[in-house]
Amino acid sequence: MSLTTRAAVVESGGAPFTLSDVELDEPGAHEAVVRMVATGLCHTDLGVASGGLPFPLPGVLGHEGAGVVEAVGSAVTGVAPGDHVVLSFTSCGDCRNCRGGHPAYCAGWLPLNLIGGRRADGTSTISRDGVPLGGHFFGQSSFAERALVDERSLVKVDPEVPLESIAPLGCGVQTGVGAVWNVLKPVTGSTIVVLGAGAVGLSAVMAAALSPATTVVAVDRVAERLQLAKELGATHTVIAGERDLGEALAEITGGQGADGVVETTGNVGVLRQGVDALAARGTLVVVGAPPFGTEVALDVNGMLGGKQVVGLTLGDAETQTFIPALVRLVKEGRLPLHRLISTYPFADIDQAVRDMGAGKAIKPVLTF
Known about the structure:
Elements: E1 3-10, E2 17-24, E3 31-40, H1 43-49, E4 59-60, E5 65-72, E6 84-87, H2 96-99, H3 109-114, E7 126-128, E8 131-132, E9 146-150, E10 154-156, H4 172-184, E11 191-195, H5 199-209, E12 215-220, H6 223-231, E13 236-239, H7 245-252, E14 258-263, H8 268-276, E15 278-286, H9 300-303, E16 308-311, H10 319-331, E17 341-345, H11 349-357, E18 363-367
Parallel strand pairs: 11-12, 11-14, 12-13, 14-15, 15-16, 17-18
Antiparallel strand pairs: 1-2, 1-4, 2-7, 3-5, 3-9, 3-18, 5-6, 6-10, 7-8
């Protein structure tokens, strides 16, 4: 039996989010119905809503959900009704990368999460007046009062932690934290540079502050965000555009360069500056995503000192272990995620979109 719920529907590329009644399909064997309590708003949602990615519209987006399980399919074993869950990306569970503990690089990641709009078998999870809508976004489509969620998107979490405080863990936060912990893996005395002080960048700053790195540099154009970065653990800040980035980083590092750089802006000019600022054997992690087909020129001889440029999806995190660890850090006050969050009633989703676009909100979280 289908379930009617209220969702924010994007009718076409560039259209606003419109609240509408939709029908959720009956849960499959490996799915659960989750009553949403909160869901984060991410730039990926806005990129798809703008028509920048070939996701089928009209559709329901949302991929940083948090809520309470109401019903489970016949084969679901990891959660039960009443459990508190954070929702993250889904994956097949059977390919080489999934079996190797790297589900963010699942062989079917793109159609399962970002562009398919349906289950792996081609069936629809959401419809309206009998017409299928784009859904199954990151296995969840959490811009709705209830979501039909893929089992591999579900992460059971501590019920004592308010769900609105941890919803962003499903994407943006685990991406920034994972860039530092899972890829850069700072050793004692490392220098970490974070380019861009949005939600992902500030998450990387917090992660670096919890690591053995002794120099953490945040770079952004907005002075207020850099002040927040300092409060979250950055030891140095650089206002982009006021001085040459390479010169500033050379001064901060005593001419040695950065051991690790996290590039979150999606600006290829900034990416190139970050690569040039690396120390010998340093690594730059590419997190920010420019439009498909974008290329960047690198100084090949400059790379011969052992520099590495590594792309990253979702922090290369194994969600079932990674997200509960982050929840514990939030609970203990060691990951002050609340400093990034601004909450909005679900009905005010378009205001949240405007505030995010204007830079007034770092991480909007919609509450139900």
